[in-house]
Design goal:
The protein is an alpha/beta fold and 892 residues long. The protein has five domains: 2-91, no CATH class; 114-449, Na+/H+ antiporter like fold; 466-554, Double Stranded RNA Binding Domain (2-Layer Sandwich); 563-726, Mannitol-specific EII, Chain A; 744-891, Mannitol-specific EII, Chain A (3-Layer(aba) Sandwich), CATH 3.40.930.10. It has 33 helices and 16 strands. Strands 11, 12, 13, 14, 15 and 16 form a six-stranded mixed sheet that branches. A five-stranded antiparallel sheet has the order 1-5-4-3-2, covered by helices on one side. Strand 12 and strand 13 form a beta hairpin. The longest helix has 32 residues, at 208-239.
Amino acid sequence: MSIFSGKIRYIVFTILFICGNIFASSGGEHAETTMTHKMMFLVIQLGIILLMAKLFNLLFEKLKLPGVLGELVAGIIIGPYMLGGLPISALGFPNGIFPLASATFPVSQELYGICTVASIILLFMVGLETDIKMFIKYSLTGGLVGIFGVVGSFIIGDLTGMLLLPRLMGQECGFFSAPAIFLGVMSTATSVGITARILSEKRKIDSPEGTTILAGAVFDDVLGIIMLAVGLGIISASGDGGGIDWGHIGIIAVKAIGIWLTATIVGVLASHKISILLKLFKSRSSIAIMALAFALILAGLFEEAKLAMIIGAYVMGLALSGTDINNVIREKLDPIYEFLVPVFFAVMGMLVNVNDMLSPKVFIFGLIYTVLAILAKVIGCGIPTYFFKFNTLGALRVGVGMLPRGEVALIVAGIGLASGHLSSEIFGVGIMMTLITTIIAPPVLVALFKSDKSGMRTEQKSEIIEPLVFEFPSKQTADMLVKIIIRTFEREGFYVHLIDRDANIYQLRKEKIIFALQQKHQDIIFNCSKEEAQLINTCMLEVVAEFEQMMQYLKKPLDKVKIGKNISFAENKRLDKNEGLRKYVDKDLLILNLEGNTKKEVLEELLQLVKSKGLIKNFEEASKAVLEREKSMSTGMQYGVAIPHGRTDSVNRIICAIGLKPEGIDFSSIDGQPSRIFVLTLSPATGGTPYMQFMAMISQMMDKKGREEILAAKSKKELFNILSGGNEEAQASKLHMFTDKLGKRRKGLKLRDITKPELIKCQLNADNKKDAIIELLNMIAKTGKIDNPEEVLKTVFEREEASSTDIFKNAAIPHARTKFVDEKICAIGIRKGGIDFGDNHKVEVIALILTPLDQPMHMQLIAGITSKLSEHNIKKLTNAKTPEALYKSISM
């Protein structure tokens, strides 16, 4: 933690220094009253907030804590009560970068205004993510949860003030005294934004607990505002010395509930009309912006009606959640959300006065008040759920979800402080309760949702989804059909949203019709209801018809000669050193004098050569792939060069066999001339392989000079050197020098940072590639840094099948990106005598690298480690007697 703290401190003061120079150069105090100065100051503040919020977000996620908590803490640290309020006169900040705006409110009006807009966007997006059907289903539960939570919290908070104020603060207080009422009201309002973000991150918003929490939080906020209105009415009446006008207070309460309830019902009923209106703007970006405009207007109207703006934003999001433009709005507003929402939580942190909470009497008062406020919410909100088939786990999830207080509680506390009804000490108590409940709720809520156990006593019935599966001859056919399907449904007025890029899952929506489309290899799968199956079958008939028509067009004669001549071997800009071919060309797959005299015989001879080296899993399938490609169009190019090829999963990587026939044979070439140089290539049908890049490198070698040199080669070694760009030993030495320099340049990618002696083994027990990888993975698993070793192992093996990771004659770096590790990690093993790592290629040093899925620099890391595993270092590594000695060697 101290390392992180040092880095954070360095970053903070670097930012302060830069901003100070900018500020000082702009005129400093002479511009303080100008609008330009205020805006400049605001821009700098926003930049710092975004940097620090994102930095702390990443830090807290690294510590297995919710990122939103990091944003709150970032706000506290850079806020006016801590670093932000420190004077830096020498740099042009006499009152600090985030000076205390006033005695009643710590941040500037401009910054709080942006924070307000951010809170509206946050609640609007939360409303969009809410399943309206589930919301209506659980609105009764949510209503009771909100009512019990508010009433219980208010009574407990008020009684706490009444009992502790005289004893700790020396201030007489009754149940209807202003401080007690404010303590009661502050403890009622749930911060729905914090809980909603956790639910969203855990994908639990649509769960019974999630919808109950969100529904309860909306009721909670409405009732909290009503309680504030009631409390202010009581305080006002008591201050005037008269009786309490319960009739007036009742009117205020009915008005608040009526406005909220009416807006929600009207919004849901009119959602289809609103959707049609928004679609008039055509552009998806315009649709999203106009939807946000409606949310802002409704939020403002709610504030005018004495209700919180965030409730109006949530109501608009809820209204549009059931429309077909839901995902369009969310997708297009996501950049705005990512920009503004961290600002909201950071500014919430800035409102916390740490100094007040350090006072012993305030701390004790605040601790007792906080514990009771936690119990009041958890018990008060949890009990009603038992009447709606929730079990104890579900009740706890709902109770803890309603636990955090945030923006509303802070606003209530600010009103009390500004109106003089609260002292600064009681304000500190309220802030302490808000902070602790906000901090404690996210990790507890995450822990409660970590289990897959249901929160309901009985299994919830869900609509039966019948998958429709359409099987096609090949993955390539399915790829093309998916594009036609999407285009067809879009013409029908559907909105298509890519939900999961890796799994090829799309959601298609039009008004009330919703179904999912997924491609799995050559299968296209629709997850839909029985009512939607007929529509999908009808559309698929049209899709297949369109595809067949496209195939008919493709059957018309094409000018193959014209297309083929574009691949020219005449005037290429040849590479002086064609190093890229080196890893594809094998001396054992070269033939100087082919025996075959026909196209079929030459192809058979080259294929048999590849087979003899054990590089083909299924010879018949590979041969079929090459011959079928020749039937569609001859691969005989110009100037005596032929490039027969085929895609087949009978090989794991690009395999290249090259044969020469100086006298030439008829290969049906484009220019009608005999072919003399034959480059046979096999590449995997699935998985990413740089086949086109390889073909481009071949073409660069096949200019006039290159063809003459190739045909004049007297030995396989000479031909290999021509193809790979020079002397084999010199090339290896050059590669080592390059990787050494690369490793020295990458100071941030040190091997010692991602491994340690316990992850090093000087003599592996395994005698084959598979067992070696398993042995290294088990070493990492023992450290507890892998969440799911079986899935990680599967990912590593899939990577190996795509292309073997042996990099030199005696070193290999198997690796994978995976979501089951949180940091880069490496295990190293030595096997003296070598292990066959594929293609009869033995290696002595094996380094297994695992990188988190969302972290960059994976390939740079491998390049850096390659420099440590170059051939002139291998001997030193293999001679190491202990893991400590080997670790020391790679750390140098």
